[in-house]
């Protein structure tokens, strides 16, 4: 019963993340993450005997314990590949809803893996030794109780927390960017759409609202810089619009 519920929750969350991935197909983060996770997933499927492969956490009656190839490095390589691909969707999408789905998927896969390991321990007496020496999801994750491994785990958890904080900040910043247009005549567009718009309208006015320091780096050709944090932003924006030649568009 519990195994079936965890499978249903897993597939539902993955379906939502797949739906969200449609909007970020052009993102290099998503493409690179999908390639890496896809290779890792294929290696995990190839490593497991076909009679053992199943989506339910209960061990197959005709199955056998797999401890080589991908399973030499982690106990649940498929779950790790799924989480990596989903993480790239979150990174590229920048939506609170997508981040929430990923944060829900992590404990679901953790609980499903723990249930699977409980049953595997009952079926295979040597599984406990394998569990003590092999990380759950992340290859080379420190295992054991000595001082070096403890510091390694602290560093690993520190990086994990830093990653979550970065995801949260990016999601917050994306939400803040969208809130700038709430109730107005503007809307957000993606990089590919912006490129097509600029190519189709050579007289387009491109307004860059980043700081002067950011604008001094990479920027779109012909862009006009009016920093949004400038106290005179509204006044400068109005002046710039009024002096722009008639018949030209704004972006």
Q: Please, could you describe this protein's structure?
A:
- The protein is mainly alpha-helical and 251 residues long.
- The protein has two domains: 2-179, Four Helix Bundle (Hemerythrin (Met), subunit A), CATH 1.20.120; 191-243, no CATH class.
- The protein contains ten helices and two strands; from the N terminus they run ααααααααβαβα.
- The chain has helices at 2-21, 28-47, 70-73, 77-93, 96-123, 127-133, 147-179, 191-200, 212-215, 233-243; strands spanning 207-208, 224-225.
- A two-stranded parallel ribbon has the order 1-2.
- Helix 1 (2-21) packs antiparallel against helix 5 (96-123) and helix 2 packs antiparallel against helix 4.
- The longest helix has 33 residues, at 147-179.
- It is elongated.
Order of helices and strands: HHHHHHHHEHEH
Question: Which architecture of the largest domain would the CATH scheme give at its second level?
Answer: Up-down Bundle
User: Helix content range of the residues, please?
Assistant: 55-70%
Give the rounded overall mean pLDDT: 78
Instruction: Quote the distance from N terminus to C terminus.
Output: 54 Å
Structural class given helices, strands, pairing? mainly alpha
Number of domains: 2
């Amino acid at each position: 019963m519990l195994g079936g519920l965890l499978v249903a929750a897993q597939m539902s969350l993955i379906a939502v993340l797949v739906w969200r991935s449609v909007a970020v197909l052009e993102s290099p983060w998503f493409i690179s993450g999908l390639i890496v996770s896809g290779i890792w997933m294929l290696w995990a499927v190839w490593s497991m005997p076909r009679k053992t492969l199943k989506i339910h956490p209960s061990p197959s009656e005709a199955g056998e314990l797999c401890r080589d190839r991908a399973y030499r490095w982690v106990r649940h390589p498929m779950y790790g590949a799924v989480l990596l691909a989903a993480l790239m969707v979150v990174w590229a999408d920048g939506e609170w809803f997508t981040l929430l789905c990923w944060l829900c998927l992590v404990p679901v896969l953790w609980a499903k893996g723990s249930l699977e390991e409980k049953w595997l321990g009952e079926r295979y007496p040597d599984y406990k030794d394998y569990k003590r020496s092999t990380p759950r999801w992340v290859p080379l994750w420190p295992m054991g109780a000595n001082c070096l491994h403890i510091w390694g785990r602290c560093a690993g958890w520190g990086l994990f927390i830093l990653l979550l904080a970065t995801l949260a900040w990016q999601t917050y910043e994306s939400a803040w960017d969208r809130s700038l247009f709430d109730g107005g005549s503007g809307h957000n567009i993606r990089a590919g759409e912006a490129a097509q718009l600029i190519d189709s309208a050579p007289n387009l006015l491109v307004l860059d609202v980043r700081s002067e320091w950011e604008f001094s780096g990479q920027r779109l050709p012909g862009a006009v810089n009016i920093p949004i944090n400038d106290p005179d932003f509204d006044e400068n924006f109005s002046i710039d619009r009024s002096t722009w030649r008639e018949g030209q568009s704004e972006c």
